[in-house]
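Pasting as-is:
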Amino acid sequence: MVERSWTAPIDDPGFWNPKGRAPICLNAAAARSYLPRTIKKTDLILAGRTKAQMVEAVAAAVDKKELPPMELGAMCYMLSKQGHLSDRVGHWHPHLMFFLSQTDPAAWGASVQGSPIFAFNDKWEGLTVFLVPVRQWSDGTADR
């Protein structure tokens, strides 16, 4: 699927960027546990909800267990040069993303000095995402 800008972290300056597009290939565990969050966010935004209303509705759905916790092994591939993650970085780097229910990224060695693994916490939805850059795009060309 191709996610749009409103699936970015809520503090992302490009949250409403109409150029935002993130081709993402989910494995089965992520399709069952991460995808429902993307669908919920998209439904709310397309219904005209504000960012604050979307955050409130998704957080409430997580609290009420209407949205599932992340399944063990939930992950995706983001290997397309066709993405536009932000005006600042364009398509960034080819990478894998691993989805966990709320956890401390530093406990996994992510986002600490010298670590090649990045992470962000969306505490409002109980989600931690780890980003692991890889060396090649889906077309086999090297990341530069």
